[in-house]
Amino acid sequence: MPISLDNTDRKILKLMQQDSGLSNAEIAEQVGLSTAPCWRRIKRLEENGIIRQKVAILDPDSLGLEIVVFATVKVTAQAQHGLEDFERRVSRFDEVTECYTVSGGMDYILRIVTIDMRSYERFLRDNLLQIPNIAEVHSRFAVSKVKYTTGLPLDLVKTKD
């Protein structure tokens, strides 16, 4: 069950989503708190699992990771063990940055990041298609990035104010 946030919690989270490298003092100043109460709020947000981790967001283009593929996957055996096996195996591939079960005609959608078409083909042949029980894989290549964010829509979260 989600915990209730007040407007100050929401402001703290917005700032941290924009720049997790901000110091406690910088956050406190921007939300109008002293450092000790701000630190306690951040600790409470961490303890409640709202802040899971703080990470660096890397620029894929700077690293030569220019291909983003959205692959939909249908598995043949939908028994629990077959789905769990697929999920366990696909979770091991670094190229797969996201994996979701989906409704409709396919079972999963994967977001795959790689350097070029040839490396995607190798990944597909040598890794993804080697997983048992795969019936179909359909690949869609991102042409351009219109929007990308890791930030969540905090304005939708109910507040206790």
Oligomerization state: single chain
Describe the main β-sheet briefly: 4 strands, antiparallel
Give me the count of strands.
4
Look at the helices and sheets and give the structural class. alpha+beta
- Helix fraction, binned, reads 25-40%
Rg is 20 Å
Describe, in plain words, how this protein is organized in 3D.
By secondary structure, the chain is an alpha+beta fold. It is built from 5 helices and 4 strands. The protein has helices at residues 7-18, 24-31, 35-47, 80-91, 117-126; strands at residues 67-75, 96-101, 108-114, 134-141. Strands 2-3-1-4 form a 4-stranded antiparallel beta sheet. Helix 2 packs across helix 3 (35-47). The longest helix has 13 residues, at 35-47. It starts with 6 loop residues before the first helix and ends in a 20-residue tail after the last strand. The model has no long low-confidence stretch (mean pLDDT 93).
Question: Which terms would index this structure?
Answer:
5 helices, 34% helix, 161 residues, 4-stranded antiparallel beta sheet, alpha+beta
